[in-house]
Amino acid sequence: MTTTYDSLIFELSQPDRSGVDLPESDVESVDLSDKFPEHLIRETEAELPEISELQLVRHYTALSNKNYGVDNGFYPLGSCTMKYNPKLNEDVARLEGFSRIHPYQPENTVQGALQLLHELQEDLAVISGMAEVTLQPSAGAQGEWTGLMIAKNYHKHNGENRSKVLIPDSAHGTNPASATVAGFDTVTIPSTKDGLVDVAELKKLVDDDTAALMLTNPNTLGLFEKDIVEIAEIVHEAGGLLYYDGANANAILGKTTPGKMGFDIVHLNLHKTFTTPHGGGGPGAGPVGVTEKLIPYLPVPRIKKVQNHYVLDDKEPLSIGRVKGYYGNFGILVRAYTYVRTMGAEGLQQVSESAVLHANYLKKRLETHYESPFPQTCKHEFVLSGSKQKKLGVRTLDIAKRLLDFGYHPPTIYFPLNVEEGLMIEPTETETKETLDGFADTMIQIAKEIEQDPNIVLDAPHTTIIGRLDETKASRKPVLRVPVTTRNLSNNS
Ligand SMILES: *Cc1c(COP(=O)(O)O)cnc(C)c1O
Question: How confident is the model at residue 493 (pLDDT cuts 50, 70, 90)?
Fold first, then answer.
């Protein structure tokens, strides 16, 4: 099962083997031992692997081959927008003028970089229908927290201490988490059986203690909240603000904006909608846009254009302050800028059309084989239920594992929480019809296997290096250093 180069790098080590050829040191050695506390002084040589350059290359190439990403295959992970990351973005991010500058350089030596940031701010303001944007937050969740801190400071400045944030039950888990970290109490709004915000319930729950309503539209079921204008009125009438979770904005680009829907604060995930790479925890970017009245609360420094000069302005008395070191994840911002500028307004509109078309095409092909709790037209993604298969003793988790045998990354499963045995599928606009058909054929084959020979699915995956993991333990107590199949676990330290 495993390749020769699957071992730990320390096991490959042989004394005096070397992959580097350093010149003789021309610096005199100095004894600094009296400058450090005793317990920090090393008594033995550092234990470093001694291996050749070729061994090192093979070791890391073997590791990278075990990874799965958008560049390897179809990745329909719902609510994650795993679309293709154009390689042009990488070329531009590697240009020396972008990659070799330092955040502490004087303003007048980095005018090009500041211009890029300023223009990206302006582009994202247009795309989101907001008055002004900050690029600082480094993830969607941090954008949410930033937006909620803006809301908090806005209410405080108006002499109000509003404590509640309303969040629909279909929301991404980061919404209640961010609201809690920002010091709010969260109130859950139930969905109707059609998967939309229950407006009657919202009316009951909203009051003069409501700081904000956080909404995702289209929501995580891939459904457009058609009552959004009325929802906005209800929240605004109570003096609350409307927060837009725009992590996956694939379905609205160039079609409509959160601004038009009545939102006051928006975050966008550049690492989802705007083709910057993501996975493995970062780096990402979650810019936040706000309407006119909230501009004074944006983080500092703000990037401004004064005549023909770009400046970093940190003199904003009502600002919530800095939320990230320097000015955000600059390399990610360069990639997103490249994407927006190469696509143009028409290109972005086409993104929405294709993303929505692809999702509806897949949905239609799968609906006769899997329960489809929300039959209406979807936007960029859709949610099926494995409830029919559950009756035959096969769970959604098993279906996800079986997909691995066919080389697909599974969809998001068991989310949102208001769908039994949920399978959330987001194909994105960058896939071909053949890829969509291949995936649909496979899903249909799995549905047939479940009817005919469920053990094939229950025992899956059959072809991966590692079978089923204890997923909770793998995420809470990861053993990252030992390839499980090649090592005797009892020898572990
Ligand atoms: C991904 C996602 C988030 C969180 O974004 P991160 O960058 O992972 O913090 C929030 N809301 C929705 C709907 C998402 O899909």
Answer: very low
